[in-house]
Amino acid sequence: MQFVDLYHYHNSIKEEIDAVIQEVIQESAFIGSNGNRFIKEFESKFSEFIGVENCIACANGTDAIEIALVAMGIQEGDEVIVPALSWYSTAEAVASIGAVPVFVDVNQEDCNIDTSKIEEHISPKTKAIIPVHLYGRAADMGEIQRIAKAHSLLILEDCAQAHGAKFNGKTVGSIGDAATFSFYPGKNLGAFGDAGAMLFQDKAVAKVARQIRNHGQEEKHTHIRLGRNSRMDGLHAGILSLKLRDIAEQNEKRVEVARMYDRLLNDIVVKPNIKGGMSSVFHLYVIQVENRSGLMAKLKEEGIPSGIHYPAPLPYLAPFNYTKGFTVAKEVCSKVLSLPMHPFLTEQDIQKVANLVNQHHNC
Ligand SMILES: *Cc1c(COP(=O)(O)O)cnc(C)c1O
Predict the structure, then answer these.
(1) CA of 240 to the centre of ligand 1 (A)
(2) DSSP secondary structure letter of residue 340
(3) Contact 212, 90 (CB under 8 A)
(4) What is the pLDDT of residue 65?
């Protein structure tokens, strides 16, 4: 059994993938500068999928956060609110531009930012909030919007794990001022290497981000600001446009897999809690258990891979160097276990995993 199965789907659309690759080769459309038609096509399709007009493809999801923050006007010394639990990039990107990540603890139930604790962390230096839709589950955007409005803060949604997830019927990425996505191969929508995208409500901000992505150029050889090389490759754009066609169906299959897990796992296992309007596209299926290492070892013995997302709260990592606080994130980190999750798991597979998890809990 695989934790993530990329091959199954890619093999099923092999001829179409091969054709796209051939097109890129014939046109030598490798570099994703502004004129590349594969980039333009992907930006336009992804923009339509999320429902935000201004979409800019870039090299990866980490660059996307950094560039978006700079384009939004976040400067050295500004404070940015981030959840204490996420993949490293969320905090790394903030610190990399010289801004200060201000960590807020998460909810035990959905592992997303605890909105009741945001306001106590707001200072005169706070400029933005980065909600992360962790594991594919929408964060509480209603509350986050209310807080952002009350304190004049910008919202940048980190949607790297949540392509197509919804909050109260609105696609995540279309709710805040800006949003970033990763197309790392194992994400719900994945390229054949690193790739990412940014979306902006404001055209002028999007224009700045587009320049930063390509060496600060307004047009060829007109460098009007410092930027970098964070272009998406033409090959990735072509493949992503093709795969975008099937994302809704693949997300539905993930939800079906999650429902089967929900049904087959004992009630004493803490299962992902999807409440209210916060839907999930189940990038990961994460349970919370006692004696996690024992269960992981047992699963491994039976040929079942599992993972930990993540072993430590962000503030406890070396560059941030906290040694106390964030008690919920800390507890969650000691209990979370990600079970195999991808669209091609069978009921048999899921039953096998569930049996082992249930047995572990009975002894
Ligand atoms: C994957 C991920 C990123 C970074 O994306 P890369 O494309 O790997 O740079 C950022 N935030 C979250 C929450 C992620 O899961």
Answers:
(1) 17
(2) P
(3) no
(4) 98
